[in-house]
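pls design
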């Protein structure tokens, strides 16, 4: 796929949550008192203007994130999903994912989701330890997790994923081992495993600055990641992206759009989009977003991505996939430019350092992380920023 084609992927942001978690810096707002119906009106206006500006031929993947999209009531959910289907031509085999918080998915709501076309749910579980859940500001408990998954299966959902976090304050290897064992006992087809990042404008950042956030030592966090990889691989899950594991055929198709640096529509307050080599960020506040959507696309900013930046992005996000990046895809995205002629020096150094390797697959040259490179991914990705700009040029 070239960067000039209309996207085949759609991201929609629902910014409402029952509460704000202590680590969260996403565009999200506590639900109480929010103008949810007016927000859905504005979202539909943005849908109309978006397809008028760049009409999609076909949408292969939809991802509804947040916030917590499942705080919508069943009637609001039905209305929202009807709007998506009316404005975007969804493929017959569309992957339609919605994020959910355990405890916010009763059978009525799940029925509305199912009827509206959702066929994949990603639950933000984070831990199977109630004490840890409370410490990070989650309001669900472990019983809610089991109940929500049971409801989803009863409603007909089988493509289910859960998020787990590691490196949490007060978390030990024993905590994490128990959580991943309990998660795997559920037999789900997909797991996402993320390390805590202390972001600005969060409660955890304030505590961190006051030296009041008891994070695990860096060496223990490293051991946590090794433990997760070992257990999931032994359980038959493919480690297809640095933070993601799946049974064959259940890899996230939508997120793979990002990792392959392909274009996608981004709608909703604070959403990011990428199309025609232009990235945009929408207005973040709920009311500013509503007000702007009445007369125009609700952009906070838009900026053109230069060829150099797009090439760097291609490598940085593409190498997150454990299969790596194929030279042929690079050439297709960048008008026949050869990967080795652009990044040969950087690739050569990373290869000699044991962080990258070249493999032949299907008659193509692929470059992928080594086992050591997986553990030092950020160092690898950063190597491509500003790399060999004199060869790339600015287009």
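designed seq:
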């Amino acid at each position: 796929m070239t960067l000039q084609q209309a996207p085949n992927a759609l991201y929609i942001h629902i910014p409402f949550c029952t509460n704000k978690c202590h680590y969260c810096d996403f565009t999200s707002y506590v639900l109480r008192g929010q103008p949810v119906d007016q927000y859905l009106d504005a979202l539909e206006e943005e849908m109309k203007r978006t397809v008028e500006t760049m009409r999609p031929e076909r949408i292969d993947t939809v991802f509804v994130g947040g916030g917590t999209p499942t705080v919508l009531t069943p009637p609001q959910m039905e209305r929202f999903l009807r709007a998506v289907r009316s404005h975007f031509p969804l493929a017959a085999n569309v992957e339609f994912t919605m994020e959910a918080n355990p405890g916010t998915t009763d059978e009525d709501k799940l029925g509305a989701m199912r009827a509206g076309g959702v066929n994949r749910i990603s639950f933000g579980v984070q831990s199977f330890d109630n004490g840890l859940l409370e410490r990070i500001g989650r309001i669900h408990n472990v019983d809610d997790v089991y109940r929500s998954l049971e409801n989803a299966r009863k409603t007909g959902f089988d493509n289910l994923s859960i998020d787990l976090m590691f490196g949490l304050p007060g978390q030990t290897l024993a905590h994490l081992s128990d959580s991943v064992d309990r998660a795997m006992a559920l037999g789900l087809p997909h797991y996402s495993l993320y390390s805590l990042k202390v972001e600005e404008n969060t409660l955890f950042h304030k505590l961190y600055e006051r030296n009041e956030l008891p994070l695990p030592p860096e060496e223990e966090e490293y051991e946590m990641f090794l433990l997760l990889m070992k257990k999931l691989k032994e359980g038959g899950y493919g480690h297809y992206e640095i933070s993601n594991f799946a049974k064959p055929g259940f890899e996230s198709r939508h997120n793979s759009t990002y990792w392959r640096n392909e274009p996608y529509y981004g709608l909703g307050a604070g959403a990011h989009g990428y199309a025609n080599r232009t990235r945009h960020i929408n207005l973040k506040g709920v009311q500013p977003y509503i007000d702007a959507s009445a007369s125009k696309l609700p952009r906070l900013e838009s900026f053109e991505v230069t060829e150099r930046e797009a090439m760097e992005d291609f490598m940085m996000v593409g190498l997150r996939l454990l299969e790596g990046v194929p030279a042929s895809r690079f050439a297709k995205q960048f008008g026949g430019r050869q990967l080795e002629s652009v990044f040969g020096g950087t690739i050569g150094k990373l290869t000699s350092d044991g962080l990258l390797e070249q493999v032949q697959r299907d008659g193509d040259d692929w470059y992928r992380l080594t086992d050591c490179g997986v553990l030092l991914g950020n160092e690898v990705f950063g190597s491509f920023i500003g790399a060999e700009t004199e060869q790339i040029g600015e287009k």
